[in-house]
Amino acid sequence: MDVLIHLFVGLHIIGIASLLGGFLTQMKAMGQGTARFVPAMLHGALTMLVTGVVLVGLNQAQGYSVDNIKIGVKLALLIVILGLVYVKRDDEEVDKSLFGLVGLLTTANIFIAVLWT
Question: CB 3.0 to 4.6 Å from 22: which of 28, 40, 96, 101, for a disulfide?
Answer without folding.
Answer: 40
